[in-house]
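subagent[fold] <- orchestrator: predict structure for attached chain, return tokens only, no commentary.
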Amino acid sequence: MNTNSELKPDAEIEKMMVEYDMGTEGKKQVQRQAKRYTKTNSWVLWVFQNANRFNLLEGAAPTSNTLMMVDGSDTIYDLKGYAVPVDKLVEILGT
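subagent[fold] -> orchestrator:
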């Protein structure tokens, strides 16, 4: 597991949002949804049907507050594809 995740929120996070991708939406739709979280005080966890869809967020989602995972998996990734250790995530979330 690579622990070089660059999750560094710019502001205090107020809430956690979950976006569930059913695998039927096109790249433009997913990127439009991702852009809604730019400059917000929210964490966003994108749950995809498979890891092949991770690249849909490329260039659209903010890197400092976006996480990704595959449905049914217990591994969470940042936008660069690095696995985020649970202890680091808990530390970042402040719980």
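orchestrator: received. Logging for downstream: The longest strand covers residues 42-48. Residues 27-35 form the longest helix (9 residues).
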